Amino acid sequence: MTAYHHGLGRRKASVARVYLAETKKAPKVIINDKDMSDFFPNNRDQLSLQEPLNLLGVSNQFDVKVTVRGGGTTGQSQAIRLGITRALLAYDEEKMGEEGAWRGLLKKAGLTTRDSRRVEPKKCGRPKARKKRQFSKR
Fold first, then answer.
1. How many domains does the chain have?
2. Are 29 and 46 in contact (CB under 8 A)?
3. Structural domain boundaries, residue 16
4. Which residues, in sequence order, are CB contacts of 59 under 8 Å at separation 6+?
C-alpha cells in the first residue's frame, strides 16, 4: 500500500485536492482522471503547477493525483500549485521531523501563501465595480 500525502489548495473559485505518492517508475500527473497535458493544453498552466516540484528538484520522485473543481484554468492551476506545495510540506514534515528542510525554500519562493484576491462585485448604479458614468459639465 502506497502512502499518500494530501494537500488542499484554493484560488479564486477553484478548490484542488492533491495526493502525492512516492514512485520509482516514470512519474505521472493525473488531473480529474486525465493527463496533465490533456487537462491543461496551455504550457503556462503546466509550468505553474509544476513549480514547487521543479524548485525542490523532486519532479521525478512523485506521482500526483488531483481532483479540482470550480473556476477557470489559471485559478485551477494555481490552486493545484498550492495543493502540491502543502502536500510536499506534509511529506517533508513526516520524513524530516517538526521543521522540514523544504519549508524555507518554498516560503522564500512565495509558494506557501494562499492568494486571496477575488473579483470585486459590481455596484448598483454603476456599469462595473469601480467604473463611473462619464461626467458632463453642460
1. 1
2. no
3. 4-108
4. 27, 50, 53
